[in-house]
Each structure stands twice: as C-alpha cells, then as structure tokens.
Amino acid sequence: MIDEKVAQLIGDLEEEDVLEIIEDFVASSPSEEDSKKVLAACQKGMAIVGDRFEKGEYFVGDLIFAGELLTESIDLLKPVLGSSQSERVGKIVLATVRGDLHDIGKNIFKTMAEAAGFQVIDLGIDQSEEMIVEKIRDENPDILGMSGILTLSLKSMKDTVEALKSAELRDSVKIIIGGNPVTKEASDDIGADAFTTNAAAGVKMCLDFLR
Predict the structure, then answer these.
(1) Which terminal Cβ of the chain has fewer Cβ within 10 Å, N or C?
(2) For 37-82, how does the pLDDT look when each residue is reduced to its tens digit (9 = 90+)?
(3) What CATH code is carried by the domain that includes residue 29?
(4) pLDDT by residue (tens digit) across 129-140?
(5) What is the CA radius of gyration of the chain?
(6) Is 85 exposed, middle or buried (0-12, 13-18, 19+ CB in 10 A)?
(7) Is 23 buried (19+), middle (13-18) or exposed (0-12) by CB count in 10 A?
C-alpha cells in the first residue's frame, strides 16, 4: 500500500524516495479519495518523527527537516486533493511571547499544524500581551499558541492570559503553551488549557480541542 510506504519513508526521513513516490502517484491521476489517504499518510509519518524525537532518537534538526519534507510533499499533492484541501480544520494564532526571541520550536509546530489542516497566523517573536489580544480580537481564532524558552516567558504568558480575561476574550479561545520551562504546574498557574514540549503532541491536542 502506497500510503503505508509513504508514512514509513517520511518517518525514516527518506526525502528522495518520498518525493519520487508522490510524484509518480500524482502522475497516475489518482482519485481525490486516494489522494486524501496519501495526505493522511504524510501526517502519520510526521507522528512517527514526533515519537522518535520524544524517545531521543531524533533531534531538533531532524524535526525541522521533516517539517520541510512534509511541506514539499503537500505541495506536490495539492493538484490532486481537490477543493476540500482549502477547507481548514481551524485557525491558530501563534506567537513567541514578550521578552523571548526563540522561534525554532514555534516554527516546527507551525509547519506541523498547517500540515494537519490548520490556518496558522504566526505573529513572530517578542510579542506583547496587547498585540496578542488585538490579534485574537481581529482574527477570532479557535486556538492561541504561545511559545517561550526563557523562564521569564512564563510571566509573559500569564500576563497575556490575564489581558485576554480583561478584554473578555479568554472564553472565546483555547490556549496551548509550549517551550522548555513549561510544566503542568506552570500551565495551571498561567491558566492555559494545555501544554506541551513536543510539537507533534501539541498538534494532536489542538485537533482534540476541536472535536
């Protein structure tokens, strides 16, 4: 089965083999239904990558490479996916919070979330509470994702949640936070709905929010 093979090859980071198989598949004029199965296989492959990262078998560079491979694969599949691929599963506003300039984890999460069908509005790094609140008001997303690597970013996350409460927007959006200093205790203190230090797991949580 091509879908099982694609999932395994993406999980193994075999770029040339993945792209060759998908190019041949697209050239065979497949049905939209079969194309969706291959798209799902690409996402399954990313789940394999995420699991291997969690076990310490893969590193950050592997995650970035896998994200780029996934983007290439989806671009190849777009012509045979039909119009339904443009139907998004949900909208995420994503930001590295005030005082923090790190974005590798955020960028990996963004790539994986887009591959899962989310529209992602990435505000970038060092985003103030006011800017995030303004975007939540303007964009009305399903989910707010906040990232930070520095310990001080936890206070910025908490301040952002408080600002959303003051603006009476907190109940309109699910909040997921991620980054090295994030723990369950920190997440509870901040008032987030979920936390993760793993991009693939974070995307699964976001999908669960919408179910």
Answers:
(1) C
(2) 898 888 789 888 888 988 999 988 898 898 889 889 988 988 887 6
(3) 1.10.1240.10
(4) 999 999 999 999
(5) 18
(6) middle
(7) exposed
Q: What are the tens digits of pLDDT across the range 86-120?
A: 567 999 999 999 999 988 788 888 877 887 789 99
Could you list the residue range(s) of the whole structural domain that residue 183 is in? 90-209
Could you say which of 86, 106, 138 is where a domain stops? 86
pTM for this entry: 0.71
Quickly list H helices, the chain.
2-11, 15-27, 32-54, 60-81, 104-115, 129-139, 153-166, 184-190, 199-209
How many domains does the chain fold into? 2
- Regarding whether 134 and 181 lie in a shared domain, the answer is yes
Helix (H, G, I), strand (E, B) or coil at 6: helix
Tokens standing for residue 28: 């065979």
Identify whether residues 200 and 102 lie together within a single domain: yes
In total, the chain counts a number of residues equal to 211
Q: How far apart are the first and last CA of the chain?
A: 29
* Distance from C-alpha of 11 to C-alpha of 6, rounded to nearest angstrom: 8
Beta bridge partners of 188: none
Residue with tokens 């909208």: 91
